[in-house]
Amino acid sequence: MNRFLTLSLLCYLSCLLQMQAQSVTTEVEETRLTPQGPVFAGHTYSPIAPLDLPLIRTTTQMNIGVGQTTGIRLPVINIADKVVLAPVGNLAVATGLLRHEQAIKSWMSVYMEFVGVGRLGTNVSSLLAQGVNTSMYYQLGWKIKVLETEKLYFSSGLELRDGVYSTIDLQRWAKGLIDSGYVSVNNPLIDTKPALAVTVPIRGMWTLSDVMGLYGGITVGFAESYVRGPEPRIQVGAHAILSTNWNPVLKVPIGTSIGFAYSELPESGQTGSGAVKNLYLRIGYTGERAFSLGVQTMLQYAPIADVTKDVTFITAGVDIRFYF
Amino acid sequence: MVVDGLVVVRCVVVGLFDMRISTVIFLLLTGILAQNLQAQPDVGVVGALHSVGMSGDAPNDAAWSSSFRYGGGVFAEQAITADIHGVLGLQWENRSTALEYTLPLSGFPPRDTTVDSARVHTNHLTIPMGLRIYGGSMHWFFSTGTTVQILQSASYDTVGSAVAIPLENVLRKFDVALYIGAGYQFQFHPFYPFVELRYQQGLINVIENKPPSVIQESPVIRMSGLSAMIGLAWRIL
Questions:
Q1: Closest by alpha carbon to B25, among B144, B147, B145, B178?
Q2: Measured on CA atoms in the order A260, A262, A265, A270, is the torsion positive or negative?
């Protein structure tokens, strides 16, 4: 099954490349690209991280964000048949992203990004109930332009994500310690699991005017779980963003974006299974093509293990991109 | 390349019926080689110094660390357009990965130390298939593609022991990796020496059967790493 999926993905990428190869003239293409920024059909987009624009650009991006939950009630903790804690607390989350995309041709780029995500309880109760989760991974991506018209732009490609998901599950560790009476290698405090995912994104953008544009995409991938045991499974995701640049009408170089993203999660012992729903708002500077600076907030509805309702996270972050 | 596309599609369809992977690879190579022979490609030799090895799960307090090893082989290159070339190769590669343990603080000033406790040695026959996309001057190029890796032999030995324990029944015979790289080609017609730096990431968990007890249950280990390559192409026409 793995071999068949691998061959299918390679076949898909090969077909995309051959489509482009046939459309390229036999003359050697000029490869020196001028900085174009996040601009298409006259509209300067305010791209929300980590939802990538379909454009082929050479760009370096840095993004950091912090946030926390809003007053969740965590499940009762029972150890040795006794209620130890009925915790009320919050979970904090921190994210960091470093990314470089290199345009190889006007129709193709490759990118590499490093991402770190950490989540932990903000007090003893929530720390004991939910432990600490970290996810460190890198992602390799190939982006190929599929269609460009006066107002529309579509690209696709392939993404390969490889990383390590680590969990410190204090509750499970304490139970294991009490049950066995000693520290055992079969009950580690820190559990790590490598996880790989291969994804095919299809992204598109539609410039309505120099003030307004839409972009979005869908992704279909095949991802390994964050815990041992479950088989890899197919995951889907989708996002849509409305981007507005106020400079043409108000003569103020400010752009705003609002967006929504839906993303299925790999199976995990701590985050539970299901999907994450994100709402984004970004306010950014649009006066320069060479760089893009913005602050963004995100409202995230995410499943958490042993919590029946989706938990709401609120995060805020800074996003900086340089275009070359 | 239309022929290649048809062959790839056929391979996928055949794969549905669970045909042996070696048959699929054979069909793929036959299709590409047949087209190259007709079109008079560049041919050449390549040597590599690489640090490709195991990564992923390791025993507690230990980590995998790839050692520099070597490889080499032949390749054929065919222009698809003026600046996009298809490349097909056949290489032999020797790989070595050490299992490093971290010892707790010792000495003065106290510090952690790492020691190699065991080494896994593998030999692979690799078939890189991909594209080179050249810049305007036809010197710099970007390369990407896939590498099929066929395990030829595998063993491990513990440091200080001369006994090599076979691992062929633990590791998968076939593996597939994606690679990206960049290089520079000199032009001394009809010879074209080049250098290239390439990173590859394995897609398949190479552990097939339960490994020795030093590794935890259900381990996930993949082959990945960097290769520095030097080669010489000869333009036939």
A1: B147
A2: positive
**Residue of A14, A15, A31 lying closest to B135 (CB–CB):** A31
CB-CB contact of A143 with A104 (8 Å): no
How far is the C-alpha of B8 from the C-alpha of A115, rounded, in Å? 34
A-B contacts (CB, under 8 Å) = 96
A15 at the B interface (CB within 8 A)? Answer: yes
Q: Name the nearest CA neighbour of A238 among A212, A204, A207, A268.
A: A204
Segment B174-183 shows an average pLDDT of 95
SS3 B9: helix
Nearest CB to A7 within list B11, B178, B220: B11
pLDDT bucket at A114, cuts 50 / 70 / 90? very high
Q: How far is CA B194 from CA A265, B41, B141, B187, B232, in A?
A: 43, 16, 10, 9, 6
Q: Does A193 touch chain B (CB under 8 A)?
A: yes
Separation CA A111–CA B144 (nearest Å): 12
Q: How far apart are the C-alpha atoms of A52 and B43, rounded to whole Å?
A: 39
| Per-residue model confidence as pLDDT tens digits over A214-250 | 999 999 999 888 877 778 889 999 999 999 999 999 9
Q: Which of A18, A58, A185, A222 to mutate to test the interface with B (most CBs of B within 10 A)?
A: A18
Residues in chain A with CB shorter than 8 Å from the CB of B80 are 18, 21
pLDDT band for position B29 (cuts 50, 70, 90)? low
Chain A residues with beta carbon closer than 8 angstroms to that of B180: 110, 140, 142
- DSSP category for residue A151: S
Whether the full predicted model's pTM is greater than 0.90, yes or no, is no
